[in-house]
């Protein structure tokens, strides 16, 4: 398996050697200040989680969790100095403010929690929190080395942005685009700050090494291959094939295949799997049919081997599987799941910026405590509108509703519940 993957990368490199760009990105650099950007994104988020048919919610949380927060994410990205080796600096600053939510409704994951000595250590959400960081970057030709605090979106190391403020990774990442159609990555990360945390290494990451890349074979066919090793957790292989097949001007098919092979390494001391070792394969295959404003998608996902598909210490977004949805990932040991999804783009009906999505996912055969045929299902609805013009251009309003049910507690013992998120975002470009 490993030989095949590295052979494919070698073939991709060989195929692209005749496609080297004449002028590189560094050759076209205008300077440190001239190419700088400064952006601030504001996010207002209401989050409600209501467990059903249970008096004891999982993880010791209240019967109902309900909180509202206002988040600010500022990012400064300098340009690169001119010359053979370009130098630049990126900076991140974040602030989260609690607008509503008390001790009895904590547990949404929007805010850090603290113990109150006056109430015998009773947990409550903090009123505000902040975090940030910076990174130095260097560029030669079309290859960039970034060292320091950063966001990542690799299938084997991806920071999560599903709450008020995103995760931040600390480490070094090389991104190379020297060959047309081929993007290569190699990096080492040594800590990870959680979404609702303010201190480094809150997710207990010791070291994660990653390598891999994406190759666009044609305009409609691409493949990805990645490897990672997280010290005292696991090593992972990841593969992807994505194929778009146009049928006409307004019709087309898209096929997407993802696969992870995960195996425990080292002491696996932080694994929350009752000390069981992981040795499994998780894959998903989806097919989407688009006709005008409508997109219909079906997907199948399966986990085989020992243990659930594990992730988190390598980033809360490191689950590039079709049935990883709003609440559940359908990633339990031996679980098989199917998804049916429908998307509607109202631009075809004269309302650009308005989109609608609904999906239903059902999983069976999950090997969880108490049963080897655990079942779960989830139904999601997502409506979003983005202003297309005017002084508030790009201001977006979003409603996300999830209904999750599992009498077997498949999702790490989680009860059946309803979730509602109301999200208002406004990205502002200052430079």
UniProtKB/TrEMBL annotation:
UniProt record similarity statement: Belongs to the outer membrane porin (Opr) (TC 1.B.25) family.
InterPro entries registered for this protein in UniProt: OM_porin_bac (IPR005318), Porin_dom_sf (IPR023614)
Superkingdom to which the source organism belongs: Bacteria
Region (Disordered): 106-130
One Gene Ontology CC term in the entry: membrane
Official protein name in the record: Porin
Organism: Pseudomonas putida (Arthrobacter siderocapsulatus)
Protein keywords: Signal, Transport
Biased composition (Polar residues): 111-123
A molecular function GO annotation: porin activity
UniProt signal peptide: 1-23
């Amino acid at each position: 398996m490993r030989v095949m993957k590295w052979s494919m990368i070698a073939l991709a490199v060989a195929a692209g050697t005749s496609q080297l760009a004449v002028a590189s990105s560094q050759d076209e650099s205008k300077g440190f200040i001239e190419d700088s950007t400064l952006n601030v994104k504001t996010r207002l988020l209401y989050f409600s989680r209501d467990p059903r048919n249970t008096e004891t919610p999982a993880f010791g949380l209240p019967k109902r969790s309900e909180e509202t927060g206002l988040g600010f994410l500022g990012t400064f990205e300098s340009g690169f100095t001119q010359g053979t080796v370009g130098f630049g600096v990126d900076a991140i600053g974040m602030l989260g403010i609690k607008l509503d939510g008390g001790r009895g409704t904590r547990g949404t994951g929007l805010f850090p929690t603290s113990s109150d000595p006056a109430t015998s250590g009773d947990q409550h959400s903090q009123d505000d929190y902040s975090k940030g960081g910076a990174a130095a970057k260097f560029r030669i030709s079309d290859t960039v080395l970034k060292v320091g605090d950063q966001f990542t979106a690799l299938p084997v190391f991806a920071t999560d942005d599903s709450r008020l403020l995103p995760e931040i990774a600390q480490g070094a990442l090389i991104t190379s685009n020297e060959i047309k159609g081929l993007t290569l990555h190699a990096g080492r990360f040594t800590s990870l700050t959680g979404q609702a945390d303010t201190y480094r290494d809150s997710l207990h990451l010791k070291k994660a090494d990653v390598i891999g890349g994406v190759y666009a074979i044609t305009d409609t066919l691409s493949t990805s291959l990645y490897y990672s090793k997280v010290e005292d957790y696991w090593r992972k292989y990841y593969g992807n094939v994505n194929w778009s097949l146009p049928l006409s001007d307004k019709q087309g098919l898209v096929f997407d295949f993802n696969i992870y092979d995960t195996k425990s390494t080292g002491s696996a001391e932080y694994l929350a799997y009752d000390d069981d070792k992981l040795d499994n394969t998780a894959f998903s295959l989806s097919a989407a049919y688009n006709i005008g404003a409508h997109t219909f998608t079906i997907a199948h996902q399966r986990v085989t081997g020992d243990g659930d598909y594990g992730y988190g210490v390598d980033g809360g977004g490191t689950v590039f599987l079709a049935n990883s949805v709003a609440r559940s990932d359908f990633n339990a040991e031996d679980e098989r799941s199917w998804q049916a999804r429908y998307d509607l783009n109202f631009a075809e009906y004269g309302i650009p910026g308005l989109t609608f999505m609904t999906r239903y996912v059902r999983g069976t055969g999950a090997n969880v405590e108490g049963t080897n045929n655990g079942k779960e299902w989830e139904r999601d609805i997502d409506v979003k509108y983005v202003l297309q013009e005017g002084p508030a251009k790009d201001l977006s309003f979003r409603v996300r509703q999830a209904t999750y049910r599992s009498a077997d507690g498949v999702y790490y013992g989680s009860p059946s519940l309803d979730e509602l998120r109301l999200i208002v975002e406004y990205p502002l470009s200052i430079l």
